[in-house]
């Protein structure tokens, strides 16, 4: 049975009720996990208020700001987790960012700053958070990140985010190899396109979704709940033999050649 009772799970990347991380948090909660939630702080505190209200029904015992570009914030956050929880069992890395102008048009036009920022936020952050989580995963653990087919194949307009996802997927493998002896498993879910704040920045996302609905074996896209169910599975003992993998939750689209 899928049971996460007694497990402490930190979920990053909830922006609103469309976020994939929100689907994951709900499924982890349903499986009995004790939740911690991070949000990206803004100057006016609007994101904090919005995310706090959204996650309230899941009773998170930790609620923290975490901008993955902010070193002191990461350190403070994990100190709080160490003090309050003592151990961490599950880390959900569900965030990404690239400038809107770098998510359409010619890939060769990507700016140096845009490239660096996209890779730092969307790829390096997994390694940084895994480093912080490692000493707290003293009873083993599970780290799950979110990727997309655009990291493996060319998808129009995905551009610099494809490079970031490619680096992210390879990071999953290096982290899995390093952390495996501590019984920490690291996997990625490659989700099919879902309408969210982040995906709306990708040029032509609606056409992409429409195409998937016509071509994918299941003739539809996937939901946040389906991704959340797979994440809960990967975090549970049912997946104890799985690490370093990219699991496609995409209604089968990835297998199609045409
Ligand atoms: P959301 O916009 O809901 O989530 C993206 C999250 O990343 C937001 O919470 C955002 O915060 C956060 N974020 C951005 N920059 C930072 C930062 N510097 N520090 C901390 N958090 C940050 O979109 P999704 O749910 O779609 O995205 C979640 C993950 O799923 C991403 O990795 C995405 O690439 C991946 N994915 C999405 C697919 C899709 O079609 N939607 C398909 C496959 C993978 P805020 O909004 O407050 O700025």
From TrEMBL:
<protein>
    <recommendedName>
        <fullName>Enoyl-[acyl-carrier-protein] reductase [NADH]</fullName>
        <ecNumber>1.3.1.9</ecNumber>
    </recommendedName>
</protein>
<feature type="binding site">
    <location>
        <begin position="194"/>
        <end position="198"/>
    </location>
    <ligand>
        <name>NAD(+)</name>
    </ligand>
</feature>
<comment type="similarity">
    <text>Belongs to the short-chain dehydrogenases/reductases (SDR) family. FabI subfamily.</text>
</comment>
<feature type="binding site">
    <location>
        <position position="95"/>
    </location>
    <ligand>
        <name>NAD(+)</name>
    </ligand>
</feature>
<feature type="binding site">
    <location>
        <begin position="67"/>
        <end position="68"/>
    </location>
    <ligand>
        <name>NAD(+)</name>
    </ligand>
</feature>
<dbReference type="GO" id="GO:0006633">
    <property type="term" value="P:fatty acid biosynthetic process"/>
</dbReference>
<dbReference type="InterPro" id="IPR036291">
    <property type="entry name" value="NAD(P)-bd_dom_sf"/>
</dbReference>
<keyword id="KW-0443">Lipid metabolism</keyword>
<feature type="binding site">
    <location>
        <position position="165"/>
    </location>
    <ligand>
        <name>NAD(+)</name>
    </ligand>
</feature>
<feature type="active site" description="Proton acceptor">
    <location>
        <position position="158"/>
    </location>
</feature>
<keyword id="KW-0560">Oxidoreductase</keyword>
<keyword id="KW-0275">Fatty acid biosynthesis</keyword>
<feature type="binding site">
    <location>
        <position position="13"/>
    </location>
    <ligand>
        <name>NAD(+)</name>
    </ligand>
</feature>
<dbReference type="GO" id="GO:0004318">
    <property type="term" value="F:enoyl-[acyl-carrier-protein] reductase (NADH) activity"/>
</dbReference>
<feature type="active site" description="Proton acceptor">
    <location>
        <position position="148"/>
    </location>
</feature>
<comment type="pathway">
    <text>Lipid metabolism; fatty acid biosynthesis.</text>
</comment>
<keyword id="KW-0520">NAD</keyword>
<keyword id="KW-0276">Fatty acid metabolism</keyword>
<dbReference type="InterPro" id="IPR014358">
    <property type="entry name" value="Enoyl-ACP_Rdtase_NADH"/>
</dbReference>
<dbReference type="InterPro" id="IPR002347">
    <property type="entry name" value="SDR_fam"/>
</dbReference>
<feature type="binding site">
    <location>
        <position position="98"/>
    </location>
    <ligand>
        <name>substrate</name>
    </ligand>
</feature>
<feature type="binding site">
    <location>
        <begin position="19"/>
        <end position="20"/>
    </location>
    <ligand>
        <name>NAD(+)</name>
    </ligand>
</feature>
<keyword id="KW-0444">Lipid biosynthesis</keyword>
<dbReference type="Pfam" id="PF13561">
    <property type="entry name" value="adh_short_C2"/>
</dbReference>
């Amino acid at each position: 049975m899928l049971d996460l009772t007694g497990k402490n799970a930190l979920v990053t990347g909830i922006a609103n009720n469309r976020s994939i991380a929100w689907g994951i948090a709900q499924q982890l909660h349903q499986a009995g996990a004790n939740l911690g939630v991070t949000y990206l702080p803004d100057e006016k505190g609007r994101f904090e208020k919005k995310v706090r209200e959204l996650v309230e029904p899941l009773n998170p015992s930790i609620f923290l700001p975490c901008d993955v570009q902010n070193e002191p914030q990461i350190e403070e956050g994990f100190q709080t987790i160490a003090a309050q929880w003592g151990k961490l069992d599950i880390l959900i890395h569900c965030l990404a960012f690239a400038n809107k102008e770098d998510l359409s048009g010619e890939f060769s036009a990507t700016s140096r700053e845009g490239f660096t920022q996209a890779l730092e936020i969307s790829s390096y952050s997994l390694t940084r958070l895994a480093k912080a989580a490692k000493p707290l995963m003293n009873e083993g653990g599970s780290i799950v990140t979110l990727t997309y087919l655009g990291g493996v194949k060319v998808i129009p307009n995905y551009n610099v985010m494809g490079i970031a996802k490619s680096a992210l997927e390879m990071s999953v493998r290096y982290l899995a190899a390093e952390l495996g002896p501590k019984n920490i498993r690291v996997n990625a879910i490659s989700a099919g396109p879902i309408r969210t704040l982040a995906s709306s920045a990708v040029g032509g996302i609606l056409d992409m979704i429409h195409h998937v609905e016509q071509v994918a074996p299941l003739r539809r896209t996937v939901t946040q709940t389906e991704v959340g169910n797979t994440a809960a599975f990967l975090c549970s003992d049912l997946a104890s033999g799985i690490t370093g993998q990219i699991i496609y939750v995409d209604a089968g689209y990835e297998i199609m050649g045409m």
